[in-house]
Design the sequence.
């Protein structure tokens, strides 16, 4: 039974998660596209920058947080930069992209610090919610997502650091992951022995299981702000 | 709550799910950056008076009925269905929000809580628990629009009386045609309010500038919008659009009423005429020399309160300041100002309700701003704001004088 569950998590669930992520995001965008437009202007003033630049600046630099809560702003920005680096790192586990080697590195970028930054940021976001007034406005989903991200990144970071610094016979390196992920991309799934015979294979499966949950939740939870933030900020300048 | 009522409310909830609402429902991360950006929360620090606290009441309903996460896992998302308790929460949320949108400029995603509270008000109308006073005022405005010919003669008589006041102020030999009505092809159609001050002072300014203008039969205020009834709001706005189109005017100039200006300027789509505020027109006259203001003729300290719908939501920041700096020798800014200015607490229809104690408490940030300037005269360009500033003045015993911008302009104009 366990080998079946293991195979399901490592193969079937990955496909389902990616399908839900892409399909769900496209579905949400399609629903928005076909929903009734607002026949007027929702602009607030002043709008000093041209619309696309203003939207991008507000989405990326988060000036509203900078004005009000500098420590929170620091963690928002570092978390999102780290998240972007993490996505690049995981893409590099599928194949090598020359463009990412502009800064020569071995996978992952940041020598393990990216994961640590994510863990610390998530802990900051989580503990912030234990305090009033943020505790009162939080709903279970807020804690659930943060806990999910925390556990996923702790395990992911553990796997990476273990391998990078040769601890506890990890030995599951980028080449092994590339064999696994590229087989999934080619729709010829193979779980290499480098993973399945590793003493740490349960951790790999657990990390992938939790990451699958994150991907599936993304379009249907508040994490969709990754996409919608740009659209709603656009309205403010239209 | 009866099943039929829940069905009706669900229908309204879904019908209001337009594109912006979809963003606002899904995007909020409850980061809490908006929490203390609301004047109401600053005056009465309750979760229900914070922007996110308000929006969540409506968001939870949307989740319960329209979002897979809320339908499948209501506990996880805190989704709730319609009930009398929820409708009470919705009332408290909607009728503590002035729609000033200060929270929106401080939200990392630009979520318009004002629009969300518009949906909440619509639900309260359907539930029969919206404020009756506002519903009656909206009905009155709709009735006037439907049978305008019955009102015209009475209104003309009132205007003839006002023309005499304008004549006295301008020291003219005759009062004839000082407030023209139903004038075809005029350059300006001016839309006032029910109060005489909203017609007399602008009429003095238009005549001093020798403007080719005409007065609207309708008042600019939109009680349908305040009440949260989109059909009535649209009907009330369309009365003015129809009148302006039939008279073939080039420009519609809105009275000192922020919401009246915003509705016609920003919320009615593309119109066949230009929409401006009286504030912009005065500035235009001043700059082109069509009216002459007495330079630095006011020696007492003057400050300006930005009406949210003119400033933050209309982009009119510098014109009133330049006018006041011309008139006053001691102009002082409130802090913060412009897009970060605190709402006075009188907008969104709240000023028409029997809630003075609430408005005094929630006017606390504005009171503190005024006191810090040390100004003796507080000027604003919005009926609701001026009324609310008077409430704050009396409630906190402030030694200030509150004036309309048109009023101080008329007092300091060379005639």
Sequence:
């Amino acid at each position: 039974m366990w080998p079946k569950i293991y195979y399901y998590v490592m193969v079937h669930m990955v496909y389902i998660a990616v399908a839900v992520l892409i399909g769900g995001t496209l579905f949400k965008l399609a629903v928005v596209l076909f929903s009734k437009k607002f026949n007027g202007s929702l602009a607030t003033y002043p709008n000093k920058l041209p619309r696309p630049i203003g939207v991008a600046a507000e989405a990326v630099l988060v000036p509203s947080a900078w004005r009000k809560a500098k420590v929170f702003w620091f963690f928002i920005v570092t978390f999102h930069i780290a998240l972007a680096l993490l996505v690049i790192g995981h893409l590099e586990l599928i194949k090598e992209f020359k463009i990412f080697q502009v800064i020569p590195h071995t996978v992952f970028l940041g020598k393990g610090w990216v994961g640590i930054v994510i863990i610390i940021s998530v802990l900051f976001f989580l503990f912030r919610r234990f305090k009033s007034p943020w505790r009162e406005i939080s709903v279970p989903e807020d804690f659930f997502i943060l806990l999910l991200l925390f556990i996923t990144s702790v395990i992911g970071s553990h796997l990476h650091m273990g391998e990078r610094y040769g601890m506890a016979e990890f030995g599951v390196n980028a080449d092994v992951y590339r064999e696994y992920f590229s087989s999934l991309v080619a729709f010829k799934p193979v779980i290499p022995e480098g993973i399945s015979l590793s003493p740490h294979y349960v951790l790999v499966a657990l990390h992938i299981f939790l990451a699958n949950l994150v991907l599936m939740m993304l379009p249907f939870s508040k994490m969709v702000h990754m996409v919608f933030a740009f659209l709603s900020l656009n309205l403010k300048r239209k | 709550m009866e099943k039929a009522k829940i069905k009706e409310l669900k229908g309204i909830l879904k019908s209001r799910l337009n594109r912006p609402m979809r963003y606002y429902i899904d995007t909020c991360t409850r980061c809490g950056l908006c929490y203390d950006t609301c004047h109401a929360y600053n005056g009465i620090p309750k979760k229900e008076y914070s922007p996110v606290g308000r929006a969540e009441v409506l968001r939870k309903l949307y989740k319960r009925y329209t979002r897979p996460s809320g339908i499948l896992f209501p506990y996880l998302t805190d989704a709730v269905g319609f009930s009398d308790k929820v409708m009470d929460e919705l009332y408290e949320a909607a009728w503590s929000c002035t729609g000033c949108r200060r929270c929106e400029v401080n939200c990392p995603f630009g979520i318009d809580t004002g629009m969300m509270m518009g949906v909440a008000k619509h639900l309260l109308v359907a539930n029969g628990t919206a404020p009756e006073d506002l519903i009656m005022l909206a009905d009155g405005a709709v009735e006037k629009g439907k049978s305008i010919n019955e009102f015209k003669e009475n209104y003309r008589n009132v205007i003839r009386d006002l023309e005499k006041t304008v004549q006295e102020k301008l020291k003219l030999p005759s009062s004839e045609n000082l407030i023209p009505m139903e004038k075809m092809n005029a350059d300006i159609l001016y839309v006032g309010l029910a109060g005489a001050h909203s017609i007399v002072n602008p009429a003095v300014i238009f005549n001093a500038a020798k403007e080719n203008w005409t007065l609207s039969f309708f008042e600019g205020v939109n009680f349908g919008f305040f009440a949260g009834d989109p059909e009535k709001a649209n009907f009330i706005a369309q009365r003015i659009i129809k009148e302006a189109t039939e008279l073939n005017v080039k420009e519609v100039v809105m009275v000192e009423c922020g919401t009246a200006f915003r509705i016609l300027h920003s919320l009615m789509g593309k119109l066949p005429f230009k929409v401006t505020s009286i504030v912009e027109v005065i500035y235009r006259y001043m700059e082109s020399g069509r009216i002459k203001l007495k330079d630095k003729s006011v020696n007492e300290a003057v400050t300006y309160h930005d009406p949210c719908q003119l400033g933050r939501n209309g982009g009119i920041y510098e014109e009133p300041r330049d006018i006041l700096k011309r008139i006053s020798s001691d102009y002082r800014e409130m802090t913060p100002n412009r897009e970060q200015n605190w709402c006075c607490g009188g907008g969104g229809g709240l000023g028409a309700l029997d809630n003075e104690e609430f408005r005094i408490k929630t006017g606390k940030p504005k009171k503190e701003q005024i006191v810090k300037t040390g100004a003796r005269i507080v000027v604003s360009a919005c009926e609701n704001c001026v009324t609310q500033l008077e409430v704050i003045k009396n409630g906190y015993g402030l030694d200030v004088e509150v004036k309309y911008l048109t009023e101080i302009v008329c007092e300091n104009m060379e005639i």
Notes: Residues 2-35+45-235 of chain A form a domain with the Fumarate Reductase Cytochrome B subunit fold (CATH 1.20.950.20).
